[in-house]
Amino acid sequence: MGVDLTLFLFYTNCACFSLTALDCCRRDKLFDKIVDIEEKVGRNVPKDFHTWGEKNIDENPYGSNTNYVTVKDLSIVHEDISDNCINRAIWAFLSQLPEDMKIALYWH
User: Fold this and answer.
1) Is 44 helix (H, G, I), strand (E, B) or coil?
2) How far apart are CA 16 and CA 32, in angstroms?
3) Fewer Cβ close by (within 10 Å): the C or N end of the chain?
């Protein structure tokens, strides 16, 4: 069993919910780099942060707080996505968003 990562985009930077979920494909090098970014600049999502189905995701299944980073923070991992078409598509999508858009990192 491995750890999966879903990126939940904040609907707006002041909203407390997400309508967009992007499921990353497991890649150790990519996930290691995202963990490093999260440890350096990640901030806790608001306590009532939820998805379109009203599922609260302020805490992950492992009991840790869900953190968020910005599009700009994640832009530095572009070289670690070249071996997977799904992750390349996700980063292509992210590259079109405002740099200050918040993205929750939901590890599950």
Assistant:
1) strand
2) 27
3) N
- The residue to which tokens 């993205």 are assigned: 103
Task: Give every strand in the sheet of 5-10, ordered side by side.
Answer: 43-44, 67-70, 102-107, 5-10, 17-23, 50-51
Instruction: Give per-10-residue mean pLDDT for the chain (108 aa).
Output: 89 92 94 96 95 87 95 88 91 96 97
Containing 29, the helix (H) or strand (E) segment is helix 28-41
Number of domains in the chain: 1
pLDDT value of position 78: 74
Give the Cβ contact number of residue 71 at 10 Å: 20
Structure tokens at 92: 């292509």
- Residue 17's pLDDT is what? 94
Q: So what's the pLDDT on residue 27?
A: 92
CA angle 25, 30, 35 (to 5 degrees): 110
